[in-house]
Amino acid sequence: MTGSNKISGNFQNKIKTSLIPQKQIFARVDGENSLNLKAICIFAATGFFLEKDTYYNNLTALQPATEYLFSEENCIAKSEVYWKWNYNPKDVTLKQATEEFAQLFEKITFDSLKNKKIILPLSGGLDSRSQAAALGNTSDVNCYSYKFSGSFDETKYGKEICKVNNYSFKEYIIPEGYLWNVINELSQINQCYADFTHPRQMAVINEIKDLGEIFYLGHWGDVLFDDMGIEDNTDFNEQTGIILKKILKKGGTELAEELWKSWGLEGNFKEYLRNRISELHGQIQIENANSAVRAFKSMYWAPRWTSANMNVFEKYRPVFLPYYSDEMCKFICNVPEELLSGRKIQIEYIKMKNPDLAEIPWQNYEPLNLYNFKEYTDKKNIPMRALKKAKKILSEKLSGKRIITRNWEIQFLGEDNDIRLKKYLFENNKLTEILPANVIKNFYDKFRYTDNIYYSHPLSMLLTLSAFANNIHPGFAK
């Protein structure tokens, strides 16, 4: 059994997982000590392992909201789900829901952060801005933002928030090719249960860890406090298709199908994945489609993808995630979907708590803010949107380089990155013991010579599997 989330008391062989577990916990089960090839295919397609899946047939991931009893041999003896996602909306107004959210949000924040020196990452979105609103002018809040080398200035929003709340602020540049200096350490931290192109914090972790005592992170707020972009009465089969569309990455299905075929697995990958999703989603007894899809994402996406790289923070400092809290999950189940859609509650909370924060431009609607962002699509603002696009094109032409907007661009593009990438893909004999060499070369060539945007995800997954084969797999096999 790996990970730690043990209940205090006399039962050292008892584990009760959170509604959204912050840490992945694994346990041995009956089965062969062999690779779970079907699970790896889903991982290749989506970027995360589904439900209980792991790399191995005799290793399982503990599930959310479940109490486990273990035998003396640390094998699962019994498990029982103690809470289920539901939708029981109260008859409340937006003002009432916002006030209830404010009370809960601020209580769990101050209960967890009292007398702590806080590290608060800031972006141009609503989650971290809500956190800043909750903290107010609290002392000992140290903030940071980062941007890519050669990208737009993503740090300006953090600077403005800190100016309003009188926080200290640090700006960091994520350098090109930083991954190659930390990839081995990162693979040990997340055990290769997530790809390496997303955790940008790894590039500056040694600096940001010294800003305080505890990370105050806003992960999953954008899922809990928004709709899923569908009608509330969307039927079950359509919901399944929507979930598939949300979780499948560009090029991911193509890579998974190639692996499935090369490993000689029975059946069809697409059919297998759809059946898995349909079965899991069917266990969620919620009629409202938006609430049901949110529950699916919170049960199977957050714990296996969002949480996978949380260890990057937790290795260096404790972490508190208010939107992960059990109380917040239960609160969401009682809020009418119409009040969650469009981020209404977070927007109203920021406006109510700190109007100056609400006047800072919202990144998605720059230069508009939380008071006037709905005007973004008005005809009068067409020139403004056109000017934004023109500035981007002009900036690229003047610099002679593409403006960096994606994580993989600073890790896979350019001659130096390509040399390092090819070493991992083509000079790792342990990788070709797992994956056919022709599959690796095929997707590398597609990325390099056809469409690097579409094939960036498959390439990232191949890199992750290379690190797994070299750094993780041999140790477990022994």
List descriptors.
about 475 residues, alpha/beta, Rossmann fold, 3 domains, three-stranded antiparallel beta sheet, about 45% helix, globular, disordered N terminus
Offer a quick outline of the entry.
This protein is α/β, with parallel strands linked by helices.
For CATH, the homologous superfamily of the largest domain is named as HUPs
Counting H and I runs of at least 4 residues, what is the number of helices? 22
Number of domains: 3
What order do the strands of the largest sheet run in, or round the barrel if closed? 8-7-6-9-10
Low-confidence stretches: 2-11
Q: Helical proportion?
A: 40-55%
The gyration radius over C-alpha positions equals 23 Å
CATH class of the largest domain: Alpha Beta
In whole angstroms, how far apart are the ends? 16 Å
CATH topology of the largest domain: Rossmann fold
How would you characterize the largest beta sheet?
Answer: 5 strands, parallel
Describe this structure in words.
The chain is α/β, with parallel strands linked by helices and 478 residues long. The protein folds into 3 domains: 14-81, no CATH class; 94-225 and 303-376, Rossmann fold; 407-477, no CATH class. The chain is built from 22 helices and 10 strands. It has helices spanning 37-46, 94-113, 127-135, 156-165, 179-190, 205-208, 221-224, 236-247, 252-262, 269-282, 289-306, 310-314, 326-332, 337-340, 344-353, 355-358, 382-399, 409-412, 415-426, 429-432, 437-449, 456-477, and strands spanning 14-16, 26-28, 59-61, 66-70, 76-81, 118-121, 141-148, 168-174, 214-216, 319-320. The strands form 3 sheets. It has a 5-stranded parallel sheet. Strand 4 (66-70) and strand 5 (76-81) form a beta hairpin. The model is unreliable at 2-11 (pLDDT under 50).
